[in-house]
Amino acid sequence: MASLAIRCNRGFTLLELLVVMVIIGLLAGYVGPKYFQQIGKSEVKTAKAQIAALEQALDQFRLDVGHYPSTEQGLTALMNNPDNQPNWAGPYLKKEVPNDPWGKPYQYRMPGQHGEYDLYSLGKDGQVGGSDEAQDISNW
User: Where, by residue number, does the polypeptide cross the bilayer (predicted)?
Assistant: First the structure.
C-alpha cells in the first residue's frame, strides 16, 4: 500500500515536460501565423467597409449642400457645418470620423485624381503603395 502512494505522488519527468513544450511550440508555430494572417485580412475588410460608409455620408452631404467638401474642409465637414452652409443637414455620421484600422486618418482629396474625390487609407505601413496588409485601400 505504501508503494502505491509513492507512485501516485510522483511528478512528471523533465523529459516528459520537454516533449509537451515542444508539441505546444509546434502547434503555436503552425496556428500563430494563420491567426495573425486572418487579423490582417479583417483590418483590410474593416477599412473597405469604413470607406464605403464615408462615401455614403459624402454623397448625402453633396445632395444637401450641392457639392462635396473641399480638401481643406476634409471629412470633418461631415460632423461640423463648414462655413455655415445653409443646406447642411448633418451630422452625416453617428460617431466621429473614424481613423483607419491602423490608427491613421483617412486621406481625402477633392477634386480627386481618380474621380470627383479620392478617399483612401495608406494601409498598415502608412506609405503609398504596398501589398497584402500594407496595400493602399481606396474608393477607386
Answer: 12-32
Asked whether the whole model's pTM tops 0.85, one would answer no
**How far is 120 from 117, CA to CA, in rounded Å?**
10
115 vs 112: CA distance, rounded Å: 5
- Tell me the residue type at 135: Q
Cα distances (angstroms) measured from residue 76 to each of 25, 104, 120: 48, 15, 15
Grid look-up 510522483 returns 10
Q: Cell numbers for 43, please give them.
A: 483590418
Query: Among 128, 90, 81, which residue's Cα sits nearest to residue 107?
Result: 128
CB 105 within 8 A of CB 92: no
Cell of 1: 500500500
- pLDDT tens for 94-120 read 999 999 999 999 999 999 998 999 999
Cα–Cα nearest to 53, from 100, 12, 2: 100
- Residue 122: burial class (beta carbons within 10 Å; 0-12, 13-18, 19+): buried
